[in-house]
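Data availability (excerpt). All sequences and predicted token strings are deposited with the supplementary files. A representative entry, Type II secretion system protein GspF domain-containing protein, is shown inline so that the format can be inspected without opening the archive.
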Amino acid sequence: MYETLAAVDILEYNSFISPEDRNECRKSPCGCLETAWRIQKEIKFKNWLIFMQFHCVASQQDGKIIESDIDARGVEEVLAVLSARGLHPVSIKLATTAKGRMDRKIFGGNITLTDQVFISKYLALMLKIGTGLLQAINILIDDFSKPSVHSFLVEVKTNLEKGMQFYYAFARHPKIFSQVYINSIKAGETSGNLESVFDDLAVSLSKEKALRDQIKSALFYPVILFVMSILILVFLVMFALPKIAGVFSESGFDPPIFSKVVFAVGFFFGDYGLWILLAGIICFAVLFVGYRTSLVFKKFILSILFNLPLVRDVVKKISIQRFAATLSSLIKAGMQITDALEITADSITQIELKEALIRISKEGIAKGLTVGEAFKREPFFPKTVVNLVAISERAGHIEEVLQTLADFYTSEIDSSLKTLVSFLEPILLMGIGLVIGLIALAIVVPIYQLTIQF
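Structure token line:
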């Protein structure tokens, strides 16, 4: 089944495959695998492609869902790699190209966080009133007109009719649904508590969306101000200043030293500005690609950003809020604390917190320490968080305390963002004002000296 699925993906995602081969696959599913292998041999023979990158979603022996990219010559090699790692394949696809992502956005759009909230709320409501899971999915299919969501729900229905587990359909789309979402559904399905899980997911996703909107809203004005400042500086330095400097140079007037320096900068950017701009764009592209493709480079960039003054405080609070909300949801869903900590670590961007959670799980709790003792060994967490976790563990209400912590840090993030924005706005205004003032001074002083001479 997985080989045929991957064969279809090979045929669908590669632009160099002819329409005839695609049609052959669609008309004859049995011949799909044979067609895919033939095409792979042709590709290798023509030396167009030696290795392909496959995106794999697989389940471990304990049922935990993981995802990874594997470079291989074909699906057989991917299956061999997964088997050697003791993994059971859920989905094997060619790693989606940028073109593929663009096509999906043009034809139907992605499944957004808002869509996930809506799906979770509806499923929670229908399961609460006693609606069967398959019937609930059918109702959602009728309600959703958005192509991407409708197609996904049809896929869920098909899987259920084939007797597959409910969470498998979500696990096949790890770029859309987070590991927290997928594993919460899996835990709820195992414990028979899906309605409660979807209820909690709807609440947590709604809070996550509200937090994202809050951050975007707070940073919108500073970002616009920063972009406008850069555009004004580029215009002044690359276009206005060189022309003004040229006028003074042609007049034969000897301006003051300060003006000469500013005019020299103007001439330099007038001559080489486009090359400098091009170099800047290339550097940005290299940094962006490196960030997306290299884990080491990504850690390096994030470590710089997360340690900037003021930014570090906001990022730490956002990370702790996400940790508390995620871990609370997973424990409520019935997941073991060690597994919940590892999945939470996967969802965290902050490197220090990610590594701390892994140590708590593998070097602390797994070796016999209590949750409170394991947390006390990690200096990243504020003492308040550590003490509350330890107390709640003894009381048996750790998920409730974690949710309270998440709500508390949500309000703290709001106040920290306001402080950050109130600091950034005057800095940006002062910076652009200073540059414009220096340029104006370099122009006005020579003009004033000229008027005195005449």
